Amino acid sequence: VVDRDGSDTVTMDEAKRIAFDHYGFDEKILRPFFAQADENEDGQLDPVEFAGFRSVIRSKAVKNALDIMQ
């Protein structure tokens, strides 16, 4: 569960936990992606914003894995 507080949005703290647990990304890596995804700049990601954020983070994880393999 990403949205731990049941607000139907994802905060930076919630995003950090998931991104670190799944991909090993820290806040320094996440912050620019989070800010880009947060289209209305409210400091939280709604479901549509989160879908874009998740896609970017997954792509970054795949790129990192491919870089390591080379």
What does this structure look like?
- With 70 residues, this protein is mainly alpha-helical.
- The chain has one domain.
- Helices cover 66% and strands 6% of the residues.
- The protein is built from three helices and two strands; from the N terminus they run E-H-H-E-H.
- It has helices at residues 12-23, 27-37, 47-69; strands at 10-11, 44-45.
- It has a two-stranded antiparallel ribbon with strand order 1-2.
- Helix 2 (27-37) crosses helix 3.
- The radius of gyration is 12 Å and the shape is globular.
- The chain starts with 9 loop residues before the first strand and ends with a helix.
- The model has no long low-confidence stretch (mean pLDDT 91).
Mind describing the biggest β-sheet? 2 strands, antiparallel
Report low-confidence residues grouped into runs of 5 or more: none
- The average pLDDT value, as a whole number, equals 91
Q: What portion of residues is helical?
A: 55-70%
Q: Please trace the helix and strand order, writing H or E for each element.
A: EHHEH
The number of helical segments is: 3
Radius of gyration: 12 Å
Beta-strand percentage range: 5-15%
Q: What is the β-strand count?
A: 2
Domain count? 1
Q: What is the rounded distance between the termini?
A: 33 Å
Helices and strands in order, then pairings?
Elements (H helix, E strand, L loop, with lengths): L9 E2 H12 L3 H11 L6 E2 L1 H23 L1
Antiparallel strand pairs: 1-2
Helix pairs in contact: 1-2, 2-3
Protein name: EF-hand domain-containing protein
Organism: Wuchereria bancrofti
Keywords: Calcium
